[in-house]
Amino acid sequence: MPTADFLSALDLFFDALSAEQIQRAKLTVEIRDLAILGDAHREHYADILHRHQLAHSFIHHPSVPTIADQARALAGLHQPWLVVRWMQKHGLTHDEARQRFLPFDRLQAIEPASRNVISQLARTAADTDRASWIIVSNRAEGCAPATITDLARLIVS
Asked: Would residue 142 be called left, alpha or beta, if left means φ above 0 and alpha means ψ between -120 and 50 degrees?
């Protein structure tokens, strides 16, 4: 489906929900189409999020720009809450990341830039009394519990 048609369908989908339903469920939109954050479609996407009071789900995944690039692309948009999903290391497929990091018992590929941008997003959300959810996969750095612990330290420091 062409990106413009997808965005129109997405808008219609959220038109069918009440603002109360969206707020109560804390709905977010996770995209995996690079074109949506590009110059041709970014404003339409941001408008959908704004009008329906939705949050963009920042995802760290090889199929989309980095979280820092997503944050820059949507810098002017008020996010009603923060959702970050750090799913896997850029440059690796799902299976490559899994094989590289097994048995997921230690950090193996720390990404300071990703940690910094995620912790900055979380601090900004906290400073503006917005809820945050940060989800980390073992395929991100090798050990999700260790990454979460380190991120928590960065957020509060």
From this structure: left
pLDDT per residue as tens digits for the range 111-128 = 999 999 999 999 999 999
> Does the bond joining 103 to the residue before it have cis omega, within 30 degrees of 0?
yes
Euclidean distance between CA atoms 43 and 36, whole angstroms: 9
Q: pLDDT tens digit string along 19-72?
A: 999 989 999 999 988 889 999 999 999 999 999 999 999 998 887 888 999 999
Q: Which residues of 113-128 are buried (b: 16+ CB within 10 A; e: fewer)?
A: ebbebbbebbeebeee
pTM (2 d.p.): 0.90
